[in-house]
Amino acid sequence: MPVDVDARVLANTRLSDDYNVVALAAPEIASQAAPGQFVMVKAGRGVDPLLRRPFSIFEVLRDAGGTPAGITLLNKKVGVGTSLLFGVEPGHRLPCLGPLGRPFSIPGPPVEAWMVAGGVGLAPFATLAGALTARGTPVTLFYGARRRQDLHAVDLFERLGVRVVLATEDGSLGHHGLVTEPLEAALVSRAGAPLRLFACGPTPMMRAVADAGGRHARPTEVSLEQVMGCGLGGCYSCVVPVRRAGGPPHFVRSCLEGPVFDASEVVWDDLTR
Q: Residue 272: is its pLDDT beyond 70?
């Protein structure tokens, strides 16, 4: 069950001029968190912004004995709320509700897991990579951004034993182009291999991954980054169009039935309008 805590800021690691990782003391949330779940956080005490903002749980922190003690959030400074979170200092307390949402599946061998991340869409994949490698599942991360300065925490995944494929749109690091290009090439070269795809990032990127998964008959899960007002299903601000079992399209609440969805069920044309 989700809990609402006043989480103390343990550290704020600024990765660049607009990316940071905030560590929060939240053992009640950390002990329940599953890969792909999120929390609702209010970074300031005022009315701007009035509502909390959803953040994927990036890491689960453990104490010296291995007991879950806290979580981290990967943040990109974009608007008022994310700018406030970028500026928090150790000792501050942030209202934090979670864990929330439907998590990723965790396949075991012989299935391989290929994660595709764009920019801050990397956020849900650290916990997923840890759970997968703990099961002995081979993991590859396809990680793309506009420029090398927007690629972060690669060493975290490499320490977990994850194979990392990088791509930048300006060619400053790794493949020159979209991250879906080396993904497509790899899918062609590994035709017939048991694979499951996972994606999080800009909606056009996730749709491209979903299309690739469909063409190559690979099960694909996407973590949708919908705007959320409450995280509990009460405000209906995060609805997603889906089609299931051949039925008509209908809307579901991402905070309850997501944020992780079977990519083949998402009505991408309606989502991207």
A: no
